[in-house]
Task: structure prediction
Amino acid sequence: MPRGRYSLHDLHDHTPLGEEHFHCAPGPSGWRYVSQTTSPSGDHLGSLDLALDELGRPIRLELHAASWQVRGAALEGVTWVRTDPTGSHATEGNVRAHTFAGTSPAFLIATTRLLRLTPASPTTRVRVVTFTDPVLAPRTVDQSWALMNSEAHATDNGPLIVDEYQVSALDTGERHTVHIAGDVVLAAPGIELEHLETPPSPRTYGPDLGEPPTDSPAAD
Result:
């Protein structure tokens, strides 16, 4: 069960935004990630509980930030309910998207488990609903993902496979690189792995899906 701490930074000026203390684990029916986020001064900022099924689809999302709350799951695309800090107003949303996204490194892992790319895979398009801090406002974004390289690194616990992904925002053309080992993000824009108590879980995927349905990620 990987357990550790990420530091989070502003994408533009690299200002520290806080830390995310996490633990995650694969299970018989998928993968789960739980975390708590704190400010640079140590104050509690929010939390995340994300569960995926064996195919990488989000079966439960509970996201908290600045007293806002989002609960969601894969249902006719992705469906969510966003509640304001007073708890008196709730707004439901639904988009024909494939998964969720946000500030947490967990969402990068979730997308890789959904796409199941190999270095031989073509560049693949995916539509995500991302929740922006601090009020968890939903925004639909189209991305393309490509696994550029997988490299084995020797460790005391055996070879560690590090995957290098190129992720592009299709609306702006902006590209960035994400390095992932199993179910731990090693480095990504705005994210640095500061501490890891136990090794990442090996990268595993569910059974072959065969031909994707019309609302699944598709190759360019």
Remarks:
- The first strand starts at residue 3 and ends at 9.
- Confidence is low (pLDDT under 50) at residues 206-216.
- The helical segments are 106-115.
- Residues 96 and 215 are 7 Å apart (CA to CA).
